């Protein structure tokens, strides 16, 4: 039954032209755009065939993956021009098999494009191998260590636990095993769907032409650059991989230093401070801006600092640059020379056991052959328009060339890259799509977690000033949430920034238990344009943490009375 | 935060919506919306207060309409810190959320009246702000005299004299490269601030001569507490102790150990005893003694002894019967605000076991007869020796009995265990010459009992009446066997 259903779905997918013509004639997307935020979720698709959409994907893929002959004849039967299949090796080539490239490849296959992905390193990219994934393994350990070490917390729950300890190698293995597992899942999912994985360093030779490795040249109708980023190391800092390290080394957890300086207090630095302090290290933050956690909503940052920094074995220097960092050698500790960020005067020299450089990430775009197509990078980033189309040095768009993810620098998050890739594939298959970056959530997996979507309060107020609308803020505390109190984790705040005149959500920021999971109600609402007055009517199971957001929406005061009509009740 | 307060916040005219500002001089009125000129007017009219006018009290603010008291989450500033107008000073937890409280004035945080973790009603002073350094001492004196529950943490802070790096080898002197600055780890700095230790005077023993948290603790005379020690398994709840048997709680801090002495860390049971003893210091207790003739009791004891009845059972039964008539002595004060009348009379009896101290509990001692009680006691003691007492068998006591009579002790007083209203210390019964009301001398067995009670709930007359009843039962012990 399911099989026949999937076939009927897969056929139209193989005729992109006729299909999209119908869809794009609609005034606005009636179907929710099928964005997959983290490609990782997709790894299951390669193995399970429980959902009809996955079946349809794999069915249509088998068509693609089949011999060229079959594909061509199919194209002919459907009356599609399908020039790609005739004059190009592929419909789409993606350079870089990170989460962005993977997300784009899977969606392309689903849309019936013959797709290849070029990988010069390992499948999975930074996220899977040196980023989000292994760090979550370390954070899972740190969260449990924190709980087991918190005598007060345990006592309040009536628990008695004797001294908690850990085995460093065991923790490191857990992170490594997780990365390996996710990597193989990712590889298998692409293989199963018929994506060709071309191994070698990819470079753009010219329009619609890609060189893979030393001398293989492949052509494709369209090309997506998804080469990602590498840790950014400011000059003057000598990374030796042992005592002065980047996140790439830190995730291997080869040592747990007694005292580590973390340069940069953004997401990466903050997550590592959570890991290191839980494992017994003391941490010193070095932050160039005047306050810790730049980029977070100031109020959330303040609360987070009170919970994540002040009570822990952490101190910090703000408003300072680390101009020179020397690894430990000849019996000397790691030295960090600090200067005042404004006056540039030397301030002091820190002596620590290790330093983690978490000053952000730099795009990985060298050697991509961009000069062949007259594209000049800006601080390494590839310039793109709002549809991820690459812009050349004359300001014109380069046909058939797109760039997604960290390499374009729009929003350096794995799931943003994936969303951008899917958006590009939508355009390639004829449906115009512009990704709303304000609907992309972000999360920092400290204990408790921080998450956000949309604008911060200062950004919203600035925008309101410019555009002349009113901004209001609503807040709820986790202290009032039954589930949070049952877990004895009442510390937390959810904050909603909105327009009281029409009920539009401008931003939501959450700090508290499972904040990273809670944000999606808000990000989906922004993505779908749902107004607060409608969200107020939605029902949440009791008692759950989701009621924090329920209460948040209900506490907002919206002047507009009528929202979009509630869907007609359906008899069941 | 609920809607009420959030709407308040959004409508606040202050540039930052995230904090609530306030601080008032001695005016007790609602501080939140005071303007400075308003405050000045108050001050000018109150001439009598002029002397103190430069010391301002920081009040517990009302952060929401339903808030009646607030808890101090943390003091962002420490005593002696300079404050400038608009800076956050303290974080207050209301019934709904945590909020930063800012100061309206420049000055020096002279004294913290309500320390972190404690609560104060809205409007109560939580700290003192001095305008100049000269006034700090005055403010501290004021804080100390500010009666109520306000301890003066300043005075409590130990006068720390960093111990010289006596026996422990000092870090190897580094090649002279000018005067070296002290390097201290983040946690060491935190501890130093907390314990008011001058880091520059502490010799670092860590790698590269850096000051470690351990160094600061040593300098502050604190015994390092390893986090997450196994939670106490037994005797956690109530381990009362006869004062005579109490080990000297805390040896004088930072005195160097005498040569030849050994340091033996507490066992869990001993740690629990120590903790309970310290806790007892927060209870205002008093003592009442009473002489009781025991000839009749001794005679009874001789009679029932062959049936397995112990003196402990007799005394427990007598105490339970007296408590039944004086329920207030069997009550306890758990929160400092109310009486908790216990439905059962459970007599805890202190026994020394294996170098520790535990209090097996004879539950419903007033209801069981002597023989059952004696049998029960025997079981409890056996279980205690085998460390098999269940928590409710050692922590459910409502009244404690401690008997040192068997050692010949004629009188002593006991420390009231936390969570109970009274404890009875029983001395030895000794032949004593007594004169009766007609002036005739005789020799009678007399024993002295001494009851320590929580004066928040048990008053002198209550205790005296209870002891009178108790002595009547002992002196006419027939009722014990009924």
From TrEMBL, chain A:
NAD(+) binds at residues 264-271, 287, 360. GO terms for cellular component: chloroplast stroma; mitochondrion; oxoglutarate dehydrogenase complex. Pfam families: Pyr_redox_2, Pyr_redox_dim. Keywords: Chloroplast, Disulfide bond, FAD, Flavoprotein, NAD, Nucleotide-binding, Oxidoreductase, Plastid, Redox-active center, Transit peptide. Binds 1 FAD per subunit. Residues 90-421 form the FAD/NAD(P)-binding domain. This is dihydrolipoyl dehydrogenase. It is found in: Plastid, Chloroplast stroma. It catalyses: N(6)-[(R)-dihydrolipoyl]-L-lysyl-[protein] + NAD(+) = N(6)-[(R)-lipoyl]-L-lysyl-[protein] + NADH + H(+).
Automatic annotation (TrEMBL), chain B:
Its EC number is 2.3.1.-. Residues 161-176 have a biased composition (Pro residues). PROSITE patterns: BIOTINYL_LIPOYL, LIPOYL, PSBD. Residues 183-220 form the Peripheral subunit-binding (PSBD) domain. Keywords: Acyltransferase, Lipoyl, Transferase, Transit peptide. One of its GO terms (molecular function) is dihydrolipoyllysine-residue acetyltransferase activity. Coiled coil: none annotated. Residues 55-133 form the Lipoyl-binding domain. PANTHER family: DIHYDROLIPOAMIDE ACETYL/SUCCINYL-TRANSFERASE-RELATED, DIHYDROLIPOYLLYSINE-RESIDUE ACETYLTRANSFERASE COMPONENT 4 OF PYRUVATE DEHYDROGENASE COMPLEX, CHLOROPLASTIC. This is Dihydrolipoamide acetyltransferase component of pyruvate dehydrogenase complex. It comes from Linum trigynum.
